[in-house]
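Quick one from the shared queue. A colleague (R.T.) flagged FAD-binding domain-containing protein as missing a structural entry in our internal table.

Convert sequence to structure tokens.
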Amino acid sequence: MEFNDQDSEDVVIVGAGIAGLATAVALKQVGVRSVVLERSDELRTTGAALSLFPNAWIALEALGVAQKLTNIYHPFKRGYITNLENGTVQEVSFNRLFDKRNVNGARTVHRKALLETLAGELPSNAIRYSSKLSRIETRTHGDSSMPILYMEDGTIIKAKVLIGCDGIHSVVASWLGLSEPVHSGRFSVRGVAVMPHGHELNNEMHQFLHNRSRAGVTSLTDTEVYWFLTYPSTYSEEEEMRAGDPKLIQRKVLEKLANFPPMLLEYVKHSDLTTLSWAPLMLRLPWDLLFKSLSMGNVTVAGDALHPMTPDLGQGGCSTLEDAVVLARHIGNSFLKHKKIVPMQMIEALKFYVKERRWRAMALITGSYIFGRVQQGGSKWMMSFIRDNLFYRILLKRMADFINFDCGKLPYMNSIKQMDDDHNKIE
């Protein structure tokens, strides 16, 4: 197959989740056209919510959409972590925990709202639905190899840059040689409760620990509450839950929360069943990121395709938004310099992106796993001592400092105009 620049896409993004849409918006900000391929026939907005910490809001500001969400969702004031087995309560002040310069703080947002906000920034033809990737090949073009995408419907798409944002079981990550994520040994259920007469959370986050399980609630709006439960499970229960029946999931959660505060059970009972989601908690082994190639030629990955992690630090979505900004910045810098996407230069741009993200992704995966193990390590005296006296009092602030990360800004389109003006002046 001959490769012709004129019939190829500049950037092809696989997956219209948070990673894919955020990357497309970031590229648009730097003047780069992209096409997003989504296997579903519409935007997949199902699911509950996610907490976004200061690093995520910095990224959303770079994408130009932060204010559209902060106008709806309020920041947390404080949080409480209660060990139901020994009665200890740890209070967390989010104002003290995170950098005060980031006025957006930490907030929980609907997943649907985040996706629709990002999608609303893109042209109507930027997302191609019902486009399922079957396989990837490469063809030599000058001094570089260009990705060729073969879709299940027989369509063939040629790309100058390919970015896999296709989730945990990523086709693109597999093509790069990354191993499949591994099971952490725990499972998670999430949902949104609808309380027509309001709730009493007052912009607070509450978490409860009991018998190696962890449950929590946070306010979304004045009438909605986001809740979650993470727990170890048996194989038989896993098979039963995989059926995805929301009423079954709700009933199982209520059984598991029998020894938790009644407030939590009340929220689960008032859940919008369409928001319930159950999933095994997966992670990529950190050394896989260290020893494997995260880019190959003009192909790389971002989001869960790059760094699936457990949700214990609340950094899955946050780090995904960081990825989008960092990746678009390196692609954008090359684009600004050459006034177009130059395939050979994209190889170097993706290498810079990988270099910037590799160690942070490894640290977040490791930190999230350790945080989860410590919190859900049971009630034996040694684990309780480490958790209550060492972890919460000393290490939590250090972890917050690491989370409070600035992914940087994007080069803007006015930079292109300035370069043109400078060039005209020289002539």
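Confidence is low (pLDDT under 50) at residues 415-427.
The first helix runs from residue 18 to 29.
Added to the table.
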